[in-house]
Write a structure and sequence with these properties.
The longest helix has 56 residues, at 366-421. This protein has helices at 22-32, 58-66, 85-93, 108-113, 119-136, 179-193, 195-216, 220-241, 253-269, 283-297, 302-317, 324-357, 366-421, and strands at residues 7-13, 74-75, 99-105, 144-151, 158-165. With 422 residues, it is of the alpha+beta class. 59% of the residues lie in helices and 8% in strands. The chain is flat, with a radius of gyration of 26 Å. It contains 13 helices and 5 strands.
Length: 422
């Protein structure tokens, strides 16, 4: 894990300055940028006519993102309704108290190692962290408010958080935070980022310490052996269930259009009834579903995991044969297997579009169908990623397990040869 894991940037807008009007633009920016994870099955597109602001203004920087896909990625406290970004933006543009902007960010490899790869995990981190941050900033918890948005940016996942107080007699009037307060805000979010990892390590430490204490009384070698058995058991479990996935690649607007169109075209040739399974489809449907799966697997973000999966298949096969043609055949079969798993998700998406097109509600017009196709395209994209990552992480564990078993066999042979020489 990198040395500087968590980065927390803090800025503020003081009331009475021109910058306060930028709060509306900032809220729109964090809520509707393409990387903003909406967590919303009813996502739609925001058109340019909704946001007529010149590019040479501060708001123009926001327009770059806001005119692209999506419903709002904004979220707030879990027990409260999802806030509308327009309402929040208008309110903060005229707010009479300071407004703080916080960015909590991680490198992608660190986020993946910590399991922070989706909106749900980040939302829990931010909600718990912001409650501590509010105390560190000496704000009144009863009057403090916040909204946030998770941006699933490749290489740099991060959350934007906006914090403010409602007017009350003891409200904080100065936006500038003292050094101790800034450190308190950093600690508040860093503590939550590492919470699951800290709990996991503490549990493992307790189990291993207790086990070693009991066993080492009699046999240190046996304790070391048990440690290896625990590690091997963990690997064996991961060969069955997989491990933490990497962060889902962002579905860019042009990719969304292409995938939605492909799914609609597949839906047109799908049977209207029967089991939705690749094995039972006629050849034309199979071929088109596989073509779409191929397209997904070689998109940016997917292609690295696809190549890694094929390479792992070769590594695993190399424990049984070193023939180049056999290794290539193993990679081909592995790819075809994961492609068909993705094709199955593609079929489900096309079937959903098919059902929607035959629904009475879809007859309102083509825009409704296109919107539903875009929503389903996002679902297929996510399902395809889960299928690929599940197989890749299982293969990673299997390759490591075989390598460790091979190492154990080699060490055993070396010990036997040493005894024979003695």
């Amino acid at each position: 894990m990198s040395k500087s894991v968590v980065i927390v940037n803090i800025a503020y807008y003081q009331p009475g300055t021109r910058k306060m009007s930028h709060n509306y633009n900032h809220i729109r920016y964090i809520a509707t940028k393409p990387e903003a994870d909406r967590g919303d099955p009813e996502s739609y597109r925001v058109g340019d006519h909704d946001y007529p602001i010149a590019m040479d203004t501060a708001a123009g920087h926001v327009k770059y993102a806001a005119e692209r896909p999506g419903s709002s990625g904004l979220f707030g406290p879990q027990e409260e309704p999802v806030p509308q970004w327009q309402e929040v933006g208008k309110k903060l543009a005229k707010h009479n108290l300071p407004v703080w902007r916080v960015i909590v960010s991680l490198r992608q490899d660190d986020a993946e190692q910590l399991g922070l790869v989706d909106r749900e995990k980040w939302q829990a981190v931010i909600e718990n962290g912001v409650n501590r941050a509010i105390k560190a900033m000496h704000l009144d918890p009863d009057h403090a408010r916040w909204v946030a948005a998770f941006h699933r940016k490749e290489g740099h996942p991060h959350c934007h958080v906006v914090i403010w107080e409602e007017e009350h007699g003891a409200a904080r009037r100065q936006g500038r935070l003292e050094q101790g307060e800034r450190k308190g805000v950093f600690r508040a979010f860093a503590r939550e980022v590492f919470r699951d990892e800290r709990d996991r390590l503490a549990a493992e430490k307790t189990i291993i310490r207790d086990m070693i204490r009991e066993v080492a009384r009699d046999n240190i070698a046996r304790a070391a052996g048990l440690m290896r058995e625990i590690e091997m058991a963990g690997l064996e479990a991961r060969t069955l269930t997989g491990d933490r996935p990497r962060m889902l690649p962002v579905l860019q607007p042009e990719q969304e259009d292409i995938l939605a169109k492909k799914l609609q075209e597949l839906a047109e040739i799908m049977p209207g009834h029967g089991r939705i399974a690749l094995a039972y489809m006629h050849q034309e449907v199979k071929a088109q579903a596989r073509e779409i799966a191929d397209w997904i697997l070689w998109q940016p973000g997917f292609n690295q995991s696809t190549e890694r999966y094929k390479e792992l298949a070769k590594q695993i096969a190399s424990h049984y044969t070193m023939k180049p043609e056999a290794l290539e055949e193993a990679a081909r079969k592995a790819y075809e297997d994961v492609r068909d798993r993705v094709a199955q998700e593609v079929l489900k998406g096309a079937a959903a579009i098919n059902r929607f097109q035959h629904d009475e509600a879809s007859r309102e017009g083509g825009n409704v169908i296109r919107t539903e196709a875009s929503r389903i395209a996002h679902s297929v994209w996510k399902a395809a990623w889960r299928a690929l990552e599940r197989e890749r992480t299982r293969a990673e564990a299997q390759a490591l397990l075989l390598a460790q078993k091979e190492m154990e066999r080699r060490k055993k042979r070396e010990r036997e040869e040493a005894r024979e020489r003695a």
